[in-house]
Amino acid sequence: MTDSTALYDIAGPRTRRRHRLYGIVSTLAILALIGWILYLLFDTGQFTAARWSPFEYKGIQELLLKGLGNTLKAFAYAAVLSLALGGILATGRLSDHRAVRWVSTVVVEFFRAMPVLVMIFFIFVALKVQPLPALVAGLTLYNGSVLAEVFRTGVNAVDRGQREAAYALGLRKTQVMTYVLVPQGVRAMLPTIISQLVVALKDTSLGYLITYEEFLHAGKLIASNLDYDLPFIPVVMVISPIYIGMCMLLSWFANWMARRQRRSPKTEAVDIAPAEPGTLLPGGPPAPGRM
């Protein structure tokens, strides 16, 4: 008999060969696509020295570094404010007061449904706010609303018995949330929180539409304002890996945090000494052999 799981049977020899064939065909198709893209890039002269020579100039390097710094600054503001707003809205949605829950629900659902670009343009044009505050405000309202649902779902995902046991010990709701539910819910929340922060990092590129001098805006200036046969593709090939690297760094940070939590003394199992002959209860009779 072959081993099986609760969801599916273990694949047999013919199925494994078929899956291996699917993997080989898929890998060849992906390699062919990459080869075709590289052929087009070489055929159109995207790797010629003339296309890449602008990046040797100090002014262009400083422009890219300034744009990268502005992107990280906007992301840092938006990430901190989004986490704070998400926590406040999640607390409101978990409140025992109906009016607070209703107001928090309306705010969350409204800003979750509103496109980020529309909010940024409204704040920038209608309210006449400067580019950086407008970008940060739009990202904060959207990502904070999404994170509020993440926090609320993570808290509610904790086993109900944990909540009931904490209340049975006489803890208040604030203490139950602070010491019992939130610490346990963080493990379930962390991957989604990091994923949403990656979305916020990528959405900082919308700042170029309101003339905020972030990383994509710097690349756009290089590609459109220099008389070097419009090196648009080289600019994309420089900017894209940096964006991908920053997102991968966030993912690595999430994995590191998860491993750190698993190694935390508060979550590790406690070693219990093996039982030995001895007195079981204070004042009880001594065990045999211990006279």
The biggest sheet, with number of strands, parallel, antiparallel or mixed sense and barrel status, is: none
Secondary-structure element pattern, one letter each: HHHHHHHHHH
Structural class estimated from helices and strands: mainly alpha
Segments where pLDDT lies below 50 for 5+ residues? none
Distance between the termini: 57 Å
What is the 3D shape?
flat
Average residue pLDDT: 82
Number of extended strands: 0
Radius of gyration: 28 Å
Count of alpha and pi helical runs? 10
Q: Percent helix among the residues?
A: over 70%
Strand content: under 5%
Short structural description:
This protein has helices spanning 13-43, 49-52, 58-93, 98-113, 116-126, 131-156, 160-168, 173-203, 215-225, 232-263. It is an all-alpha fold.
Features:
mainly alpha
Outline the structure in words.
Helix content is 71%, strand content 0%. The longest helix is centred in the N-terminal third of the chain and has 36 residues, at 58-93. The protein is built from ten helices and no strands. The protein has helices at 13-43, 49-52, 58-93, 98-113, 116-126, 131-156, 160-168, 173-203, 215-225, 232-263. It is an all-alpha fold. Helix 9 (215-225) packs antiparallel against helix 10 (232-263). It is flat and about 75 Å long.
